[in-house]
Design a protein that fits this description.
about 30% strand; five-stranded antiparallel beta sheet; single chain; three-stranded antiparallel beta sheet; globular; alpha+beta
Length: about 130
């Protein structure tokens, strides 16, 4: 079955894994999905990820992080830009969820970056998702 939006598929798999308290989640491998996984790892929302070769496209194996009491670190993932409605933001218009406690993930000309890194680099781009 063809997947039209691999980013939305990845976020849904992560959401379902967090809800089911799964330790790992597998997603399809693509350059953008690897970028999103790297941002989630750098910001502390997941413990890490591995690229698993399956002879085709490959898969990403994400290790989900939970707090000391077993509560999930990820509370809400929202896909902002979709296939039917792309959302682009300049550097000054990139949202800061929860007053800086959450992050926005932006696809820029310098790669997939969090809102903090995008503001440091002074670049805008396509707003992929927000995480609270």
């Amino acid at each position: 079955m063809a997947i039209n939006d691999p980013i939305a598929d990845m976020l849904t798999r992560i959401r379902n894994g967090v809800r089911n308290r799964a330790k790992t989640v597998t997603c399809l491998n693509s350059k953008v999905c690897r970028g999103i996984a790297a941002v989630l790892r750098d910001e502390g929302y997941i413990d890490g990820f591995d690229v698993v070769d399956d002879g085709r496209q490959g898969q990403l194996k994400l290790k989900i992080r939970f707090g000391p009491g077993g509560q999930p670190v990820l509370r809400r993932l929202t896909r902002e830009s979709r296939v039917g409605r792309r959302v682009y933001r300049g550097v000054e218009a990139i949202p800061v969820p929860l007053g800086g406690l959450g992050i926005s993930i932006v696809s820029t000309s310098k790669g997939v970056l969090s809102n903090r890194k995008a503001k440091e680099e002074r670049v805008g781009g396509e707003l992929l998702c927000t995480i609270e």
